[in-house]
Amino acid sequence: MNALIGTKSINGKSNASGLRQLRLILVDSVRGIKVNKGLWSIPMGGIEVTSANDVVSIHFVNGMYSEPSETTEHGEAFRGTIDIEVPRDSTEQTIAINSYRGKKLIALIKDKNGTCKVIGTLKQPLKLVGINKESTNTWQVQFSTLTPAPSYYTDGISLFTVNSQFVTL
């Protein structure tokens, strides 16, 4: 049994909840993803996109990620959900947020502990499932996916492959 399971700190560092960074990529812009299933990870540069412009950083003030398992008619599945609070209501913000309606996405997240994950797959993409305009001049935005396995880890969310060349964003 692994001694780390259920601990509140690892290497003397306490757990910090919440997200630090979020990047979104349209599935149509992804040429391929290299997965190391033995390590349950995607290596740095393991996501190939058509252009560096296809990777969009989303600015938010508060963000959370959850991935509970659930039982479906096909067996166990994992519901990856990203909830973010996007500041400032404006025409530009309304257009930007609503541009994700009906789109298939892959998200790259970095949490406040520095852990990076890839949420969604080419076959089970992330989708915008909720938008709520709050009276506090912010948007509550939710993205979600249902996958047959937990999300893959990655060493970072800044290195991609474009035309077989590494690109840092």
Quick summary:
The protein is mainly β.
Describe this structure in words.
It is a single chain. This protein is mostly beta strands and 169 residues long. The chain has one domain (18-168). It contains 1 helix and 17 strands. It has one helix at 91-98; strands at residues 9-10, 13-14, 19-26, 30-33, 41-42, 47-49, 55-57, 62-66, 69-72, 75-87, 105-111, 116-119, 127-133, 138-147, 152-154, 159-162, 165-168. The strands form 5 sheets. It has a 6-stranded mixed β-sheet with strand order 5-15-12-11-3-7, with no helix packed on it. Strand 9 and strand 10 (75-87) form a beta hairpin. The protein is globular and about 45 Å long. The model is unreliable at 1-5 (pLDDT under 50).
Any chance you could write out the topology, listing elements then pairs?
Elements: E1 9-10, E2 13-14, E3 19-26, E4 30-33, E5 41-42, E6 47-49, E7 55-57, E8 62-66, E9 69-72, E10 75-87, H1 91-98, E11 105-111, E12 116-119, E13 127-133, E14 138-147, E15 152-154, E16 159-162, E17 165-168
Parallel strand pairs: 5-15
Antiparallel strand pairs: 1-2, 3-7, 3-11, 4-6, 8-10, 9-10, 10-14, 11-12, 12-15, 13-14, 16-17
